[in-house]
Amino acid sequence: MPMLEIKNLHVTVDGKQILNGLDLVVNKGEVHAIMGPNGSGKSTLAYVMAGKDGYQPTQGEIRLDGENLLDLQPDERAAKGLFLAFQYPLEIPGVATMTFLRTALNAQRKKRGLVELSTPEFLKTVRAAAAHLEIDTDMLRRGVNVGFSGGEKKRNEILQMALLEPRLAVLDETDSGLDIDALKIVSEGVNRLRSPDRSFVVITHYQRLLNHIVPDVVQVLSRGRIVKTGGKELALELEATGYAQYQDEAA
Amino acid sequence: MNANVLSAKTEAELTLAKAYASAKPNLPGDRKIQALREAAFRHFDAQGLPHRRIEEWKYTDLRTLMHDAKPLAGAPSAASRAQAKNAGQLLAAMDARRIVFIDGAFVPELSDLSGLEKGLTIRSMHDALAGGDALITAHFGKVVPSDGDGAIALNTALMTDGALVRVAAGSTVERPVLLVFTASGDKPASVFSRSLVVIEQDARAMLVESHEYKNAYQVNAVLELVVGNEAHVDHVKIFGGVGDAVHISSMMASIGTRARFNDFSFITGGAVVRNQIFMRFDGEGALAGIRGASLLKGKQHADNTLVLDHKVGGCQSREVFKTVLDDESRGVFQGKIIVRPDAQKTDAKMMTQALLLSEDAEADNKPELEIFADDVQCGHGATTGALDEDLKFYLMARGIPEKEAEALLVQAFVGEAIEGIEHAGLRDALLGQVASWLSARV
Question: B177-182 and B190-199 as β-strands: parallel, antiparallel, unpaired?
């Protein structure tokens, strides 16, 4: 059974059709890059997978390990092992990052029938994960993403991913707004989490992220459906030729 | 004509007038106090209960909200004294000096009066009124004129007991003084409590009032507070308890030169709460922070009304009031800042924010600035809104269930006001009460 199977997915946003019969299969341990021009539906795909309000599936299904995610609330999807790294991580003043991480981790553990982590265990885990991503503990005491730079926010997303250990991670334009050093830290953070049991869907407009996170499969998304599938060399080809041919094809 | 005037009175007003007439001979106080009572009662009798045609009471019309007046509370029974043994438990972690009142009456045997710090005196207001006290002579009814407020007049007419606290000049009282006001029993009663607290020059103290009433009690509590020159005072009032109580609270505070004053109001209990604060800067260079958080549900109605008088210059005031409204509750905030002509270099900022958790809740905000000086910094802001859906989604996408996500966001919202409380134990106790309020939401 594939880890992720999306079949004939149609999604409307504000009454406008954005996804148009999208099919996607991601097997266990694979890293798929989804590339496409602006407006092709990349972020809509990310949000509908995570279950954001206003992203209305009208047809089709999204199965994670065989279970249709569309029947579940966002928190239940997360507990099943889905993680979305946001393109624009939000700031939550008044909720300390540490509290946020702990509440999230324990909520997921509870849903999976595991005991909550003790405070020392939790602190040890967070500190180790934060050190890899060059996040200092002062940042963790502040409100979630409050006063963080763009790069720090993205690193914080990867920290959350490392702690929550998802089965399937969706990275929505994780490279946007990153300078080359931050891009390296974030990519290394992702690569450390690659494993035969974990799959990734890396959504990006540009090829440069894929020099650092090397995909197994590259998919081209245009006008709400996958129009081309290839290996990592497809990304380089796109960088050279642009998306124009695929937009024409989909039309 | 006379008959017409009488028929215009509400049942509650008539009952209160009768209660005053029969209680008068036994109310504590010498001839001077009796004269004050009589004048106050006449004022009340002429005006009636505060109602919506009085601008300051526009949103809280006691004539409609008080259907009747409960009988005046009597002396607490032995059973109620036994029951009150554990009053104030929610604040046990504070390690405060607990002083207990049942139905407004001071109960020395339940109060911790041993080993009073040097400079600290605590007395029953009943005894002070009856037997006389220098503090009464010096300050009673004079701290900040209440401008004929009907609720305060009614309290002056019918006040029975309360606390008289003094911290002598230069003294530091390390342990917070906790005044716990509790109700005796199942039968609703009217309570008129009156307290006077005088913190003298260069003294340091923290005063916490916890009001834990139940069922349909009607409480009218007045506190006069003198913050001396260079004194540092924290005052926290907790409107707790359960049931349909009506709680009218008035504080008049005078702030001396270079003093520091921090006030916090925390409202979760009561069907109708009016929390009015009249504060005046009487000396230059003082700092005051007036903050509050209200958590309302069902049909609760809570009204925070502030009048801050910058009478002299060079003082700084900061107000932050946060209200969380669920179900069909209603929150009112009225904040008036007055800057007198001589109060140059005043720095005053006021912020009020309401968070609506339900479509049927209502928040009314009325900030007012009256500025007569020309070299000042004054500002106010008011916001009303629902929880941010995008933030909620972000939390839920990390596996946090919807109610828990909402709770985190509400805690963050009120936390901003509660964080201003310096005492860590009290801060934690209030954050704990916020958490239990949230976990009781279905």
Answer: unpaired
